[in-house]
């Protein structure tokens, strides 16, 4: 019974295309064309621009949605086959179970169905089974009028089970696990926590938060369905830093009541007390902790997605800043003790000269710095000055303002986001582009070039190093990297490049070009 397939006359590829088309409100032939092109290894910008006839003119956003859904559904199908093979190997696969697994439309649903058959560590229920208490647990689930619990349990006494209560406790452990691993009960409990649950936090160690970053969450409470993405990220970070204790609670009584109904709890049966105890124990010990983990994971994933979408927008805005064409630009990387690094770049980005000035404490050689800057501006006919917005940036901006007012009227200046400049400075690409410059001076070159052509310069840096949002280090890093990479790829292909002056790093992002082709 291997390679199970849902009964359908359509091919697997056609079923996949139809499912994605329904999910995304597209036409099946559009999706089929996109899937085929993606499977051939084509990039999304390439497909969007040069293969419109095969996708019915799907745009980049639609293609990325198709690609994401395709990956999920293929992962889902692969997991189904793995689960089916595992259960079949155990000799426990029935037609009904196989059909339920094949019809499951989420990974969570598949995992819920697989849970009772998943290899486990030695649980309390496993210990009870090893003592031969499975038949007693089955009697407990059936809840007959006769025999009574004490009478039934007496047949299972042994050296390891010296009394009736020990036998019944073992049987309850088995029933508790059965309840907690019933797929319909787990899904109901999950839904109830999401719809009616509440998430709260309290401060654990106020001394661990000297700046009061988490003060809003020292006594915080909100319904799960209304909690905001940024609040989830803040709660997660505060918990990770051991400042906050976070709790998620749900309607416990309603869930236990539903579990009893699902297991056919009979209040008139002499076994009712045993069943209620097993359900209560299984809920508090097994089901509730697992469901709370699931719900918190879902909340975090949703918060990650929301934050990543914001980071993508921020990065796109950074990359699409208008360039300062045909201008000679001076870049200044501010600092105190080590001095401000200065670089002048011609309109093509070629480095003309570099220098280091010491206008700030501890040296305070301000007049000398002004004279050096004035000479460089006049000598190389600098049109604009770019100032990095890091350490000592305000003092450096005042220095440049005085320079323009007193010595080189007419030169414009601007603050430039220097995030990632130090990462670029020490990168292999920077060593290749600027082999004769000290690493400390390369940052000033990058700052100057960012004003001249933000896209051409920022594309050389790992997008995560550019600094695109408050919680960017808290979200799923693999997902963030892929999302930001997609933005860079999209912007480059939307704006276009000058092949005569573009760097290999920029050319490599052009649809249809590979890094090797770009380097040549």
Describe what you observe in this structure:
The chain is an alpha/beta fold and 520 residues long. The protein folds into three domains: 12-117, RuvA domain 2-like (Arc Repressor Mutant, subunit A, Orthogonal Bundle); 134-146 and 157-314, Tex N-terminal region-like; 329-452, 2-Layer Sandwich (Nucleotidyltransferase, domain 5). Helix content is 57%, strand content 9%. It is built from 24 helices and eight strands. The protein has helices at residues 12-24, 28-39, 44-50, 52-55, 60-89, 95-103, 107-114, 124-130, 134-142, 149-154, 164-180, 183-196, 229-240, 252-262, 272-319, 366-380, 393-406, 421-425, 428-433, 439-452, 454-458, 477-495, 504-507, 515-519, and strands at residues 198-203, 219-223, 244-249, 329-333, 340-345, 351-357, 384-388, 412-416. The strands form two sheets. Strands 6-5-4-7-8 form a five-stranded mixed sheet, sandwiched between helices. Helix 6 packs antiparallel against helix 7 and helix 8 packs across helix 11 (164-180). The radius of gyration is 32 Å and the shape is elongated. The model has no long low-confidence stretch (mean pLDDT 94).
């Amino acid at each position: 019974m291997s390679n199970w397939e849902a009964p359908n006359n359509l091919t697997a590829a056609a079923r996949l295309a139809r499912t994605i088309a329904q999910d995304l409100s597209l036409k099946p032939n559009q999706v089929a064309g996109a899937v085929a092109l993606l499977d051939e290894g084509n990039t999304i910008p390439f497909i969007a621009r040069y293969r419109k006839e095969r996708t019915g003119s799907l745009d980049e956003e639609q293609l990325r949605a198709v690609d994401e859904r395709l990956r999920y559904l293929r992962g889902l199908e692969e997991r189904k086959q793995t689960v089916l093979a595992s259960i079949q190997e155990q000799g426990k696969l029935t037609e009904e179970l196989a059909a339920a697994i094949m019809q499951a439309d989420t990974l969570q649903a598949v995992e819920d169905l697989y849970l009772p058959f998943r290899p486990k560590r030695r649980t309390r229920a496993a210990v009870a089974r090893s003592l031969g208490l499975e038949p007693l647990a089955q009697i407990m689930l059936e809840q007959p009028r006769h025999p009574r619990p004490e009478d039934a349990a007496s047949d299972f006494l042994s050296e390891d089970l010296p009394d009736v209560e020990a036998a019944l406790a073992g049987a309850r452990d088995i029933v508790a696990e059965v309840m907690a691993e019933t797929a319909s009960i787990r899904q109901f409990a999950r839904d109830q926590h999401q719809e009616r649950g509440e998430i709260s936090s309290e401060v654990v160690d106020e001394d661990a938060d000297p700046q009061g970053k988490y003060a809003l969450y020292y006594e915080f409470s909100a319904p799960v369905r209304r909690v905001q993405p940024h609040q989830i990220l803040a709660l997660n970070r505060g918990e990770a830093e051991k400042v906050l204790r976070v709790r998620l609670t749900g309607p416990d009584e309603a869930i236990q009541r539903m579990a009893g109904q699902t297991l056919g709890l009979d209040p008139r049966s002499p076994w009712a007390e045993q069943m209620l105890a097993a359900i209560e124990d299984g809920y508090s010990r097994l089901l509730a902790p697992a469901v709370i983990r699931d719900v918190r994971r879902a909340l975090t994933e949703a918060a990650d997605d929301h934050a990543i979408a914001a980071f993508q927008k921020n990065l796109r805005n950074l990359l699409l800043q208008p360039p300062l064409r045909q201008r000679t630009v001076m870049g200044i990387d501010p600092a105190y003790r080590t001095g401000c690094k200065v670089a002048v770049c011609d309109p093509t980005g070629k480095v003309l000269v570099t220098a280091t000035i010491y206008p700030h404490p501890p040296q305070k050689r301000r007049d000398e710095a002004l004279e050096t800057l004035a000479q460089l501006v006049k000598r190389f006919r600098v049109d604009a000055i770019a100032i990095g917005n890091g350490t000592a940036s305000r003092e450096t901006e005042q220095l440049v303002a005085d320079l323009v007012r007193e010595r080189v009227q007419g030169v414009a200046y601007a603050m430039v986001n220097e995030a990632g400049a130090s990462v670029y400075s020490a990168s292999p690409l920077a060593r290749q582009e600027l082999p004769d410059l000290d690493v400390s001076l390369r940052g000033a070159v990058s700052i100057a070039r960012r004003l001249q052509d933000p896209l051409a310069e920022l594309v050389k840096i790992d997008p995560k190093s550019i600094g695109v949002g408050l919680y960017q280090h808290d979200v799923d890093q693999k997902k963030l990297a892929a999302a930001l990479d997609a933005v860079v790829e999209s912007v480059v292909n939307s704006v276009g490049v000058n092949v005569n002056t573009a760097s290999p790093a920029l050319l490599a992002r052009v649809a249809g070009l590979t890094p090797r082709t770009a380097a040549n």
